[in-house]
Structures are given as structure tokens and as C-alpha cells.
Design a protein that fits this description.
Elements: E1 11-13, H1 16-24, E2 28-29, E3 35-38, E4 46-57, E5 63-66, E6 70-73, E7 75-86, E8 91-100, E9 102-104, E10 109-117, E11 129-130, E12 141-142, H2 149-157, H3 162-179, E13 184-186, E14 191-193, E15 197-203, E16 208-210, E17 214-221, E18 229-230, E19 235-242, E20 246-247, E21 252-258, E22 263-265, E23 269-275, E24 280-282, E25 285-287, E26 290-291, E27 296-297, E28 303-305, E29 307-309, E30 313-314, E31 319-321, E32 333-335, E33 340-341, E34 346-348, E35 352-353, E36 358-360, E37 362-363, E38 376-380, E39 383-387, H4 395-406, H5 426-446, E40 452-455, E41 458-461, H6 462-489, H7 496-502, E42 514-517, E43 520-523, H8 524-535, H9 542-554, H10 556-572, H11 581-608, H12 624-635, H13 642-666
Parallel strand pairs: 2-4, 3-4, 4-7, 7-8, 7-9, 8-10, 9-13, 10-14, 10-15, 14-16, 15-17, 16-18, 17-19, 18-20, 19-21, 20-22, 21-23, 22-24, 23-25, 23-26, 24-27, 25-28, 26-29, 27-30, 29-32, 30-33, 31-34, 32-35, 33-36, 34-37, 36-38, 39-41
Antiparallel strand pairs: 1-3, 5-6, 11-12, 38-39, 40-41, 42-43
Helix pairs in contact: 3-8, 5-6, 6-10, 6-11, 8-9, 11-13
Length: 670
Amino acid sequence: MQQPTSTEVKYRKLSTEETGQLIMQGCTCDNWDFIEVDRRFTAENIRNAHFSGHIKLGYFDSEVKLFGDVVFRTGIYNAWLNNCVVENNALIHNVGSYISNYHIESDVVIHNINTLAVSGPTSFGNGLRIKALSEDGGREVTIFDYLTTHLAYILAMYRHRKKLVRLIEGLINDYVEYISGDRGIIQRRSTLINCGSIKNVKIGPAAYLEGVQKLNNGSINSSYEDPVHIGEGVIMDDFIVCSGSEINGGTLISRCFIGQGCILDKQYSAVDSLFFANCQGFHGEACSIFAGPYTVTHHKSTLLIAGLFSFINAGSGSNQSNHLYKLGPIHQGVIERGVKTTSDSYLLWPSHVGAFSLVMGRHYKHSDTSLFPFSYLIESNDESILVPAINLKSIGTIRDSKKWPKRDRRKGHNKLDQINFNLLSPYTVQKMISGREILLNIKKASGEDAEIYTWQRMKIRKTALDRGIHLYELAIYKFLGNSLITRLQQQNFTDMDKLRSVLEKDTPVGSGRWIDLSGMICPAEALESLLQAIEQKRISTIEEINSYFISIHNNYYNYEWSWVYEAINAFTGKDVMSLSLAEIIEIIEKWLDAVLTIDRYLYEDASKEFSLLKRTGFGIDGEEADRELDFESVRGEFETNQMVVLIREHMDTKKKLGEEIISGLMSLKT
């Protein structure tokens, strides 16, 4: 939300007749000469109002309909205004205390509130330093209206690059200085009903506030396309709320940034935390967390503290500890994208959980599964048990990957966070390659006869280790083949020379290490180019930085092929440009086998949800036939289940695609 640039309005002084009419209608003023009005102003709809300081008023000649079909004439009724501008056809009705130092734009509705005031100078929450990740400090992120999850990640996690952080904070401080002032604004078509105290808050267009208890020092960056809703009993101090977010149900917020499309409700509480696109928090609490996109917690007694999260679903009673009772709450944790925690799970920080994993039980040994994505971390008899790659067989993992894009609540074109939803990417597959190598080395070092292996304070059973190697191989070939086939589909070729030209890289960027920049998957090399440009002052505005993030995000698939190009060589020992036709077909055949094998695992996992055991509790007062009918009426039939149908369709499509590609390749001129 930028500073208002209202069209200049020509104001005039009140006439003697208008002043007299206002007095007759119960109005008072410290100095009538300090009131200016629009040339179309009439005094009819100003009643029982007191004015002090400098006042500018528009005209009021329309109606407003509130809930329950109650109709008000626009104007000012039962209110005290001090140093305010009120534009055309706003409604101000029943102000318990006063409105001071506000610019109230056209078509705003303010009904039955207590206090609305600015006591400047203030930056409306911009410039606050939030102690994310480390409750004891050291990774502070300076918040402002246009903060992205990617920029916040750099500020929090790249503290070792002091010049970089200092320059970025300087750019943010320039914006903070620009936005600061001694007058607040409520932009067009915003509504404030039955609210308590609102102090030092600027409010964007079309925002809807009802029953808010207290707001202090913040920005509500609503938009016409994606309004902000703040509701009953909410108390917020030192905050920024971005477009499309909803905060209701007695939520308590202190020193937080709340990004686009978030929902906080049902008495959720958070302090010194960052929430980015599409986060949801109900019932529980957060303290010093970096909640990347789609951080979700819906349960009571669930605490998220001093951690980096994204795409997480935290189970009821999930907890972490950042305090070892020695030097204070100085520890932090990293939970990579797509993790689920079961009820009453516990992690002792510092710990690092790999992407798309499941955490079950209570873990006291500082686990690090970062090189084992798609795994289970299970507690048994106070031991942490690692089950590598097992989540690749889970239908729930696939369901999650498909639901996230559908649950993007952000509307409009100005989406701050760039989000990559891919389940398999160079980021996860590079870890699978490393994890598979570790498992092979563990097996080689410990011997074939071992039943339980140990790796970094975690136990791995032999069957789990062998299965993990197999599943990682399948997933690696699936990803490499996906990228290769996508490349082949995009171009026409008639002979091997043209085929090899199709397989050439579009860019050298992407061949090396990849990172998850809190929702945006990108090559470390591409990010490094941005960071160096900032350090060398070739990029010198926040707008340029955010545009660079968008450019990296939009080039993902070009970068991905550069990585796959090198990975095929590293994993298969064969250089892409020297692959024979038979070797290319072999890779595609392994891809097809991997895709179909994984889909069969998913199909089998889905069938478990329709087993006799899962029908317990159905047909409660009937016989076996009633149980089956009741189950089918509630859950549907296995063969018509949406996810099951999708798996079958996916298998048919990929099988057909593989056969077509192989057939086309075999017809090439060699």
C-alpha cells in the first residue's frame, strides 16, 4: 500500500448559513475558521459532531446499507474529529471517544467505534525488527509493507554476509522513512464496525474490520482485489497484515508480519513471528518462528517455536524446545517443506528434518535428516528410528502436493511470494542422490548381515535401508526422465544431430547446488548473482530485488534442465551429448518403470483406506452388509475415489506417453 496520491480537491470556507445550520444540528467547533469543505458540501448530514484542529470535509449525498438492511445516510453523526480529512460520502457514526489525525477517503464506513487516532511520528509497523528463528536474537528481520518470504530468508539466514544485510536493511529503512508520518489513512471503501481502540494504524482499500478489540502500530495492506478481514476480539500490537488475510476469533498478535492470504483464528497467539503466503494458525501459539508459505497448525496445545517452516501440517500437541537451560533460548530448528508432525510429537532443537517427511514421537537427540527427504522419523523406546524414502509410497504426500496450488488464497496480480509447488525438483532429488549414496556406504561399512544400522544418533533397520535405496533410485529416475521427456516434447527433431541440439542447455545456470528459498526453489548460483549485485550496488531498490526473485522463479524449468543435464552424467555415468539412441531409450524405459512402480505403490496405499479395518465404526447398529453400505455412502467406492482415479489416469497417460516417445525415437535417422 503506497502513500495516497489523491486528486487535488478545491476546498472553501463554511458559509455563515452553513455554520449556523451545523450549530442548530448539535455541532460544536473550537474554531469554525479551521473547517474547509468541498464546493458541493451541504450541512444536512453533519449532526452532533465536535471539530477541533484543521478539518476538511467532502460532500455527503448517498446511502450506505449495513448488515440487516439498515440504511444510513452518509455523513458525520455523534463524533469528535480532530485534524482530519473526510472525503466524499464517507459515513462516521457513533464514535465513543474521538478520531484524530486521519485522512478518511471516500466511501469509508466507520460505525460505533471507540478511538481512532495517530500520535506521530509513526511508521505504522514498518521498520520493526522481528526476532525470527532465534528467540534470543541474532536473526532479526526488519519488516515493511513489501517484505517477501525470500528477502526475509536472506535477512535471517545470511547474517554471515554483513555487508549484504546492512545494504538491504538500508533500502528498507529508506522505505520506512518515506512511509512515516503523523497522519494515518483509511482508504476507499473500507469498513470499521463495532471496534475498540485503533491507534497508529494505516488501512488500505476495501478492508473490513468488525468487532476488533485493539490495534496498535500497524499496517493493514488491503486491496480492492483482495481485501483484508479482521474480526471479533482481535488484539494486535506492532504488526503488518498483507492483502487477502483474515484474522478473527480473539487472535492475539504482537510483533508479527502476516503475509498474503493467511488465516489466523480461534484464539491463536503469536509473538515475534513471520507468516508468509497462505499460512493458517488456529488454537495454538507461535513464538519466534519463520513461517514460510503454507505453514499450517490447526490444533490446541500445538506450539511452533524458533524454527524455519514451510508447507508443514503440525499435528495436535506438536512441540519443540529451544532451551537447554544453559545459555537461554538460543537454539533453532529447520523443518523443510512438506513435513507433517503427528499428535504429541516433540523435537529438541537444534534439529533439521528433511523435506516431505513425517515426524512421530518424541526426539531428544538433535536429529538431522536433511539428506533423507520423504522419510519417517519415528521414536521407539527413546530411540530415533529413520525410515528413508518411505513417504514416496504415501498417497497422502501426493494429495498434499495437489492441494497446495488449489489452496492459494491470494487474488490479483501482485503476489509477493514466488512459490514452486513441485514435489520432485533438483532441490529434493540432489538430496536423494546424496542420501542413497550414504545408505549404500552405511551398508558397505557395516556389512550385509547387520540388522540395524546407526547413522548420526539414528537407527535404520536393514529392511528400511534396502527399501530406501530402491525408492530413491525410482524417484531419481522418475525425475530425470520427466525432465528429459519434457525437453523432447517441446521440440521437433528428425535425426540424432537435431536431437542432440534439443538436449543442449539453455543456460549454464542451474548445474550446481539448489536451495529452497522459503517457497521458491532455485539454483544457489542464481541467488548468488543477486546477492553479489546487491553487495556491488548494481541493484539498489527493493523493487529491483523483488523483480529479480520473479525472474529466477520464471526461469525455473530452464535452470532445471541444466541441473538434469549434469545429473544424468553424474548418476548414470553417461554424458548427455554423447548418449546413443539406445541409451536415451533405456533412460526413458527406466523412467516409465519408475513412474508405474511408484504409482502402483500409491494405488496400494490408497486401497488401505478402504480395508475392512478402516470400516470400523460404520453401520453402527446394523449387520456386515449395513457396514459396507454405510461406508460406501460416506466414503464412496475405492474405484471411484478421486485420488484413485487420478492414479489410474496418470498410469495410463504416462504409459502411452512413454510408448509414443520411444516409438518416435526408434524412427529417427541415425
